[in-house]
Amino acid sequence: MPVIKASGSADRQGKDGVQATTSRIGKGEQELRDIPQSLTVVTEKLIDDRNLDTLKEALKNTAGITFLAAEGGEEDIRLRGFPLQGTGDVFVDGIRDPAFYDRDTFSYDRLEVLRGSASMLFGRGSTGGAVNQVSKVPRAIDEHQVDLTLGSHQYARLVGDFNFRLGDEAALRLGAMVNKADNNGAGSSIDKKGVAATLRWGIGTRDEFSIAGYFLDNDNGMNYGMPWIRPKASSPVDETTLLPVDPKAYYGMASDRNDGKASTLTATHTHRFDRNHELTTKIRRGAFERDQRAGTVRFAGASAQPDGQTVSLETLNPASVINRGTQLKIQDLDAWFAQSDYSGKFSALGVRHQVQAGIDYAREEKTVYAARSAAQGGVVPPKPTTTLGTPDDGAWIDESTRVLRTSNDYRSDGAGVYVQDLVQIAPAWKLLVGLRYDSLTGNYNTYALPNNAPSPETRSSYRMKVSEWSKRLGLLYQPTPLTSFHFSAATSFNTSGDAYSLSAANVDIPPEQAINLELGAKLDSEDGKLSARIAAFRSTKLHERNTDPLVNLVTLSGKRHVAGIDMDIAGRITPAWEVFLSYMWLPVANIDIGAAGSEGQGTRPSLTPRHAGTVWSTYQVDPRLRVGAGLNMRASQTPNRNPGWSAPGYVTGDLMAEYVVMHDRLTLKLNLSNVTNKLYADSLYTGHYIPGLGRLLQLTASWKY
Question: How buried is residue 662: exposed, middle or buried, by Cβ count under 10 Å (0-12/13-18/19+)?
Fold first, then answer.
């Protein structure tokens, strides 16, 4: 008998299980087996099972992700050892999400992580890949759910998801969230709320429309991190390790904050020429605000310590004095996006084609503010010291006394056009060919205010103009409906201004270039309920920006590469036993040509652990009771600039039990995360680290009606 492969509605597959079979990360809906590149999908079911409230926590369920605790407080994402710029490689429904803010999962249908070069699809971007947040959409049914979660540290979270059927072809979906906690388990308070609303009409007809609004308001606390510590004051640098304190201990100011707002309005039109051809056009307006005020936490020098000695594990005691510095990240960003994507299936010249093509335009305007120093006529409120034995001391300063000025502003205009064709060249063979052209201009201004204000302010202006081609090539061999093998090559480029930071040193530097090679397979079980993906890859940044210290100019003299294997397994082993696994082995990672004063030639790049992965498994004990358990692990890794020492690796464990009180109505779920209260460094920087979440106990009541 021939194999018959069936899958449920795309609207339901992510809600009913951890296995996904399709994706729209390629700008049009495709089966995962037709994408010749590694792709991990974190479904709504997995997000709910593990209580993954933020983008960062959801990303930990995909292999190869690490985090840089950057100077501005934001956590830059690394994938396969390459940075995913928060302003360039994170997307919402295929449109760039260009701002730094604490993203929440309350409106997620799923999270998609594409590994390897992605510039052919999205334009400028990382060598590592791209992250796409997929929003929930209205469906033509009446279905509602309210989730209330209570837990450790006065944690309270209320999420509502309401879907209203307005007719045979129209529906409204409304999501709302409010979340508060004294501590997130790693020293930061939580205070946020959000609303997502989408009106959709013409569902399934020739012309379908939707209007979606999204608003997120963060008034969270800010834990800038903890300093590394040496075993002895005389210890060499490579013996630096973690500070032995509770992960939820907080040594910042009570007035520190990480406030931010994200507001978007998106209009979408899909025209279906017939069942095989459609054109989707989207226009989005986004406005983002960020007001982050925190401070570096460092041990005071020997002269300020009670015992007059440099602080180390040998001398550490509750009276050890800690200084609190000042760090600000205050910025506004406004953006317009427009894109139109065509997808079609047809026969021509005797072969089958699946074509995706499109055009897009983006305008982004950003303003960054700084605080005036005392010499510039500003006010710098002093921050008191604290001690190791007095975390959460409640010390507070009036941040409103600071006088702000414009530090720099930036405007970019970018346009791109692409076409990709998946050609059935033989019964079991497909060839993918893709090409994209991008044109990007950027205007950047920096403002300097000398001491002894009111001296006149000076402005320096820089202009960037980039024109780049991106390529994608893939060959797929699919001997059966259950097996697919692929080889692919894709390029990517990063502009000098991808973080809105042009200067005289880098304004005329061409984009960095990179290439990703991959050999992989996607395999399904006979019943189609379990999928596996495995790939061997090599990613090379051919031209990497380095700074020449002799002339303080940026050059494209660097080069690095990584090579390894990653894999996913998702689905049901038996009707009662479900599993999700994502793992990466990265044995090869090397700086081929190093940057002076940074990561040295011949060394392993920072934030590239040899092993990283996660596993989650649930078992349906009986019709009412379901239990689950999982592990997250990461091998040792060095902070940025590779200072010569590593943060230790770790393994954390999570448990879950779910009980159905009323069938299809009321469910209770208990989650215990980081069961052993493991202390580990989650986000790394040369001078500090941000600890991972400590042990958390949370109870969720879900009401469906």
Answer: exposed
